[in-house]
Amino acid sequence: xxxxxxxxxxxxxxxxxxxxxxxxxxxxxxxxxxxxxxxxxxxxxxxxxxxxxxxxxxxxxxxxxxxxxxxxxxxxxxxxxxxxxxxxxxxxxxxxxxxxxxxxxxxxxxxxxxxxxxxxxxxxxxxxxxxxxxxxxxxxxxxxxxxxxxxxxxxxxxxxxxxxxx
Length: 166
Prior knowledge:
It is a single chain. The protein has six helices and five strands. The protein is α/β, with parallel strands linked by helices. It has one domain (7-162): Rossmann fold, CATH 3.40.50.300. It is globular and about 45 Å long.
């Protein structure tokens, strides 16, 4: 039996708290954390001005990281990927990473209603003004239109995380 690390990734609406949860889990487990937002900001500063830009640059980033993530997992270190897994297509990328070598995985599904997400987005606008143009109700509604909750038939080890209004 090999001693691979565990691949941990997330699903949840925009503003549900996926990034906060990913950072917390990475600290608790001594895992390597990869944040899509941080990588995109570092590699493509000022180039992401709308949702289509995000899709384009995100699709360029994922192949770069995939091999590195696999190598870290195969070396026995847990990896937390703070990348959205909010559609079947996005989740397929995670499955590609872990399935070939049968690496353990966890999909944390952060369940939060729209009211909670919008409240957290307003707070994030204040705390991270550089993201304010994307953390709007209009963008939230657009992105949420594509959201697909994970289904058992997809074959993931799903851990539900329920968020409530504070």
